[in-house]
Amino acid sequence: MRMSCHGLFDILKKRKTNGRNNANLDDFESNTGCGMGIHCSECPLSFRCSHNGNKDVSKTTKSGQKIKKVLLMGNPNVGKSAIFSRLTGLHAISSNYPGTTVGFLEGSVSIDGETYKLIDVPGAYTLDPTNEAEEVARRILDEGGDIVVIVADATALERNLYLALQVLEKGYPSVLVLNMVDEARHKGIHIDLQTLERELGIPVVSTVAVTGEGISALKDALAKARPSFILPMGKDERWRLIGDIVMRSQQVTHRHHTFRDRLEDISVHPVSGLILSLLVIGLSFYTIRTIGEGLIDYVFDPLFDRFWSPLLASLSNLLGGSGFLHDILIGHLIDGNLDWEQSFGILSTGLYVEFAMVFPYIISFYLILSLLEDIGYLPRLAVLFDALLHRIGLHGFAIVPTLLGLGCNVPGILATRVLESERERFIAATLISVAVPCAGLQAMIFGAIGSLGMRYVVVIYASLFLVWLILGYVLNKILSGQSPELIVEIPPYRLPSFRDLGLKLWFRISGFLLEATPLVLIGILIANLIYSSGILPLISNFLKPAVYLLGLPPEAIGAILLGFLRKDVAVGLLLPLGLTPQQLIVAIVVLSMTFPCIATFVVLFKELGAKRLLQSIIIMISIAMLAGIALNSLFSLMIT
Ligand SMILES: Nc1nc2c(ncn2[C@@H]2O[C@H](COP(=O)(O)OP(=O)(O)OP(=O)(O)O)[C@@H](O)[C@H]2O)c(=O)[nH]1
Ligand SMILES: [Mg+2]
User: Where is the signal peptide, in residue numbers (predicted)?
Assistant: First the structure.
């Protein structure tokens, strides 16, 4: 059965801009999502994998055996990372939306005495790149490999064959993996592997990466990889050949609409979809908060109070109750007692801020985010919010980096790579740094100000959201260019694999602990030293005009400046200052918007370059001051 080029292509929405209609695959604006790139090889914080700029295609082991370089390539969201994880035993993050992998990962596997180095290449629809992730894919292929494993989604063979043919035309020994055959079976799609092998001239295996089905056949097939007889051709000819191949190798039988199909329709309908999205977002926030608070009240607070507190009390006695070392480690005793939030010792406030205030929310946030990712809800949000996001110069898919930024700005900014234009990346990255508070900061917002009244928390979130909207709108107006139309491939809803979900959660929270703990402890140490050294009044004096305009006491500036190290620590520093709720709101809003924390700063530099970073910083400081002054004036008016 022959289907049209886009018959299998689940494009939910396409819009015309400048009279261009982008339904064509070759100029397909593959603004395809984004992902949790925190572990990717190009992440400055990476410690799990290495960047390989090495142009040598193959290396040798100590025993002189040649290591074969295998590239795992294919369209976005076809299961490349899932196959990579199955083959190497490493954990590459898989999520149910296109563009999860934006850098690349390396791992190795030994099969029958042969060692293979596998590279999980970012997804691409074509070898004529339309975004940064596709450029990375193209570059890696150009660097060469011994074998290319082309991963295709069996439910969308026609679309997937485009890239497959382009790769085969290059003449690399290859293997085709038809992944997701479980879903193809449900959809009544049957693909004859032998016919496909004959048509393409390379070995073809079918797999279900999430269960491991077919993975051993894939391992065997690596040794049989061979170049295809397919020669380079033009675009039209390629599509004609794809049509012929699909007609000969694929059969589709009729099936009835399922509940899942109906739910998929409801989720993107302009009315029911919006209602559902508000429900999902509301429920997500509620669950995150409930789980976070539950963990604090029933696990972490009791642990600190019952177990850690007596240990620190003994250590405090041992150190004589005061002195330099005592104040650094245990902190200052308040009324003869330890105060988790105000003592400022590395072992007291340092560990408490990290584990009992921020960590519980990190766990609950990533649990819910990972669930939404794996079910496949995020691309649907992208479609629903596309119209709003276009008003602020962004493609609908920018919602995904933004949501990731709510966990940590670093992966959020990395994920902007799949946005097509440099202009869009700049807007998205700046908006994330300015107005998207990371989970650490949010945990502290709830901890510091939530207890005084939820209305104060609402004011902070409303201020951040308003700035996000207005700044986006203004940047969209003043920066030249336009944001491209939304063409998003919407994956089907999938039941998450709880094993993979657990692994992803573990990966993210352990990453948080490894990366954040040293910075939190250093932050507390520096804060402690600054406060006891007496240099704070000097800095505050220098910044007096700003302090005056913001209506804050001079010490608050010290805390805001320390936000450069860690925002959550900085909020912790505001707590002992005895600020009014209004002052706390101003300080937290200014703190959220001024500088990104150091980790985000490094990523911004890497992604935007020095000139754009400078522009972004100027925007951040100006907006932070404007928002702070506006809020302070508003509060003064309300009081008088
Ligand atoms: N049902 C089913 N789901 C699968 C299979 N393989 C992967 N998935 C799911 O498909 C989604 C995409 O998988 P990934 O491994 O992230 O895909 P990818 O090709 O690496 O995606 P990008 O990095 O975005 O290019 C995830 O939700 C996986 O759990 C499969 O064989 N069957
Ligand atoms: Mg991937």
Answer: none
pLDDT at position 43 is 34
7 pLDDT higher than 60: no
Structural domain including 95 reads 37-255
Residue 261 is assigned to a structural domain of this protein: no
Residue 570 lies in a domain: no
Q: What is the phi-psi region of residue 404: left when phi exceeds 0, alpha when psi lies from -120 to 50, beta otherwise?
A: alpha
Q: How many CB atoms sit inside 10 A of residue 62's CB?
A: 5
- Bridge-based pairing state of the strands 174-179 and 147-153: parallel
Backbone angles phi, psi at 235, to 5 degrees: -60, -45
Strands 174-179 and 204-206: parallel
The alpha carbon of 101 and the centre of ligand 2 are apart by a number of angstroms equal to 4
Q: Are 583 and 448 in contact (CB under 8 A)?
A: no
Averaged pLDDT score across all residues of the chain = 84
Rg (CA), the chain: 27
Question: What domain count does the chain have?
Answer: 1
Residues with Cβ within 8 Å of 521's Cβ and at least 6 positions away in sequence, in order, are: 346, 350, 351, 354
**In the prediction, which pLDDT does 323 show?**
87
158 located within any domain: yes
* Ligand 1 and 627: CB distance under 6 A: no
CB-ligand 1 contact for 137 (6 Å cutoff):
no
| Closest atom, ligand 1, to C-alpha of 94 | 16
Q: Is residue 74, in this structure, part of any structural domain at all?
A: yes
CATH number at residue 188: 3.40.50.300
User: Could you give the CA distance from residue 44 to residue 603 in angstroms, rounded to a whole number?
Assistant: 7
Around ion ligand 2, residues with a beta carbon closer than 5 Å are 81, 100-101
Ligand 1 contacts CB of residue 210 (under 6 A): yes
CA 437/CA 431 separation, integer angstroms: 10
In short, whether 83's Cβ falls inside 6 Å of ligand 1 is: no
